[in-house]
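Q: Structure tokens for this one, please.
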Amino acid sequence: MSQTQAETDRPPPPDVTEQHVNFSIHCVKTFSRMMTVLEEYYGEKPIVLSEQSNEIVLSFFVNSTLTSSSLVVTRHVAGTVNDIESCIVWKGNSPDGRSFMIPPEVNFPTTFNGIGKGTNT
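A: Here is the predicted structure, written as tokens:
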């Protein structure tokens, strides 16, 4: 698992536990191939991308009826220059079409526990 600078500087709260789990993930060699696979097989397209570092990008894919979604992690493979792998780490269905929802109003405080500056939306 990748660790951010914030994680190394600040331990998690006491009620956050570390768990090691075994589960299968499905990977391809490029993000563009992952986009093709998810669109052709499940009708899903990426709707949210989150760059976590130069090495890690999180992506959330969903289909047009919001009944199917996938969480994808794309990362540079350690020890290589150009190679990446893009992996489905979670895939699920929502029969009620709730696979992607945005809260009606999101208000970010100007600081998060005294760290950084947020914005109000």
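A few notes: The CA atoms of residues 52 and 58 lie 7 Å apart. The chain has a mean pLDDT of 83.
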